[in-house]
Structure to design on (449 residues):
């Protein structure tokens, strides 16, 4: 695929406003690829350019999150100002399907009065019933219906069935909102022992440990044959409906037979046991202080442990507590970084001096917000109004911001049914009471008989 549209086959990526966009859609719904294929063939050099009209189902309007293929295609088309209009057709228009359908109208040479704008037309009620259904198809567009749609499109005016929006009205920023991790820590025997099975499959590893003991960690070669035999026989008593043995999946089996994995878990227990001996079993309510003590012990005993393994030890002996101090991830040099709490740069007192720090984020509290492109004041104003009053310790991850586009006909054309009046509700209740009067007496008399 080529041409001035910017498509590069076979990667289905385009450079758009200095950013590379992937236009690959999900395999289960590739209809937007048909549209972007037509876009790639548009004539940009002639005076009239090209116009495209293509029928889609409703999923093309909204499927795909910000940064995903479908959303990127909508963004690519709308931000290039190629989308003229989308027309909602009546349901049951096509044989053997009742799904809602829409006509996408694109042009790369919009007239002046349409530039920067998109027209949505709700023609879902403009149809002529068929005298006899053809499968689920029970209506069609008559010449009058087609003229009405064309006239509405050409008039390009705001009516109950025609809405006109700036291109940006359909766009939004998807922003990740972070909150700090808050932990208490304790080197209890239970927490330390849990590290024996840090590599996962805790239930199975625990059973193997009961059978084979500490040799799994300190003398693997001696029990290697017994471990393999036990794993090979695992599930002999379990059979599926056809009488076949279940056994263990190869991936799990391979990991359980990995001596390095057992040795690593054993070493984690060894390190945690040393820390417990030095620091005791008391609860540390400030994880930052706990981490300092841990590092001091490791340095004192010249213990070598990778950052990943140390993180596993700390995670095993810690738990989330909302009232705990935030866990500091990074301390910036004094005077080198300006504080910016909205973007995760906070001012704290460390050793009696002011410092700018970043906190570790709590993945369990991570959230996302959709901020309209037309939001007055942009992302920061939205976060200050909608997020910070409820979670004042939150911040936004600047690197996570993605631009998405979606189009909702329901939002713009849905008309809720008016609520019934109290008089109507009261009349219905009275009617039900009248219908049921004497019914209980009749039931009781019937029981006596």
């Amino acid at each position: 695929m080529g041409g001035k549209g910017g498509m590069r086959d076979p990667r289905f990526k385009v450079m758009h406003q200095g950013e590379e966009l992937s236009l690959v859609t999900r395999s289960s719904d590739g209809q937007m690829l048909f549209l972007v294929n037509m876009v790639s063939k548009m004539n940009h050099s002639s005076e009239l350019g090209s116009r495209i009209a293509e029928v889609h189902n409703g999923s093309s309007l909204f499927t795909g999150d910000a940064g995903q293929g479908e959303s990127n295609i909508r963004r690519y088309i709308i931000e290039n100002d190629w989308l003229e209009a989308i027309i909602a057709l009546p349901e049951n228009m096509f044989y053997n399907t009742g799904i809602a359908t829409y006509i996408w109208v694109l042009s790369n040479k919009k007239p002046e009065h349409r530039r920067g704008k998109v027209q949505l037309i709700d023609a879902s009620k403009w149809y002529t019933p068929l005298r006899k259904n053809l499968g689920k198809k029970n209506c069609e567009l008559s010449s009058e219906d087609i003229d009405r749609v064309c006239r509405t499109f050409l008039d390009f005016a705001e009516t109950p069935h025609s809405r006109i929006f700036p291109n940006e009205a359909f766009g939004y920023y998807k922003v990740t909102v972070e909150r700090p991790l808050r932990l208490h820590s304790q080197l209890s025997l239970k927490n330390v022992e849990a590290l024996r099975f840090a590599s996962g499959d805790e239930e199975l590893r625990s059973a193997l440990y009961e059978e084979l003991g500490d040799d799994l960690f300190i003398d693997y070669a001696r029990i290697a044959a017994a471990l393999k035999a036990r794993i090979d026989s695992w599930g002999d008593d379990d059979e599926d409906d056809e009488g076949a043995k279940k056994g263990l999946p190869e991936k799990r089996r391979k990991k359980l037979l990995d001596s390095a994995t057992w040795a690593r878990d054993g070493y984690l227990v060894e390190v945690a046991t040393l820390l417990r001996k030095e620091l005791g079993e008391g609860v540390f309510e400030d994880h930052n202080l706990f981490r300092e003590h841990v590092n001091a012990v490791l340095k004192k005993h010249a213990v070598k442990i990778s950052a990943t393994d140390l993180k596993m030890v700390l995670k095993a002996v810690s738990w989330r507590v909302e009232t705990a101090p935030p866990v500091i991830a990074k301390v910036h040099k004094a005077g080198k970084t300006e504080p910016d709490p909205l973007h995760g740069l906070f001012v704290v007192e460390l050793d009696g001096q002011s410092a700018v720090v970043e906190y570790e984020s709590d993945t369990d509290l991570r959230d996302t917000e959709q901020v309209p492109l037309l939001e007055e004041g942009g992302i920061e104003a939205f976060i200050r109004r909608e997020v910070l009053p409820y979670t004042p310790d939150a911040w936004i991850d600047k690197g996570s911001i993605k631009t998405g586009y979606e189009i909702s006909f329901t939002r713009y054309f849905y008309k809720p049914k008016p609520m019934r009046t109290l008089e109507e509700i009261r009349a219905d209740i009275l009617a039900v009471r009248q219908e049921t009067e004497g019914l209980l007496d009749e039931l009781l008399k019937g029981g006596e008989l």
The first helix runs from residue 31 to 40.
